[in-house]
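Item description
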Amino acid sequence: MRSKQTFSISFFVRKKKNQPEKALLYTRITINGRSREISLKREVLTDRWNTSGSRMMGSNIESQQINRKVDDVRSKLYQSYDDLKKENQIITIDALKNRFLGNDIKNITLIELLNYHQCKMEKVLKYGTLKNYSTTKKYLIEFLKVELRIDDIYLKQIDYKFILNFEGFLRVKPGLHNNGVMKHMERFKKLMRLALDLDWIDKNPAARFRLNFKSVDMIYLSKSDLKSIEETTFETEKLNLVKDIFLFACYTGLAYVDVKTLTKDHLKIGIDGKKWIFKRRVKTNTPIRIPLLKQADLILQKYSNHIKILDSDILLPVYSNQKINSYLKEIAAELNINKRLSFHAARHTFATTVTLSNGVPIETVSKLLGHHNITTTQIYARVIDSKVSSDIDSLREKLNQL
């Protein structure tokens, strides 16, 4: 049977060698006869210290401040002892001292976790993913300051209420819709799971939070939309350039960053003796091999001597994603394409209108897109199925009128 643990706290002063009229204030913690001293980094007048009462004598401001410090330290030491007990920790003199001083892993803060993740993942995650985590970090820091009016919080203090309040904080952010909020909450859940894996928390309060993504309509060009863009020559050079870069993505299925980083080294002669693109997706590092369709090859030839890429290995002069998306909105408006056009719609168009609708097997499309799992590609197949269903409904109506 384990013997009862003894625990005591005392305060004392130690005279300064060169100034015996002054002394430094210490606390002594004792557990089962073993003691540790901790300097409180306070200087007191030796003759005003009451040893038996562990208090400063007198009612001046200095005495009041020292006495408050003594009370505060005593309270925090007892709290640290109780916390260790509740956590079923083995309470040793060193464990208590470290808990009191904040040197143990139980006192890691949220900001420390965010900084740790940023440092460790800098060479692991892609630039875009890191940028997204930075935005989540920014919102978390803003939430602490604006809503909780604190600069930081211990991980062990984060509870389910904190998580719900953070979600509520995000939901009133201008321009941040449900799925955007859920993306930030998803990253926060991953951060808290990391804290659990590192043994910085005993229980993950974010584990119970359920992500609720809402399905959104997939934006892609129909055959007529695609033809309309291809056959239009715009008045400005910038719109014609954006049109061509966008069409190149429509006929290759490449994401924006993969088009932007496309170089001459990525062009190879494939097994059929024709031009292919051999590349790794920037986002996932997945290898992709894409036979170059005539429409895409003509665009490469058109810009082979463009001034912006003349002295480089880059194949296409690509604007920033933000600028391209802005110009695509102008193109959609000018051609009366009633869709929220963005560069990513090109990848969707390749999967649906260019390949699946023309009978390319889903397994082939999955490889062309660089998907790890064919279930991801099946999303596009469902879009095609809904189009088939819609067309058949129209056919039924026409047949019923005969």
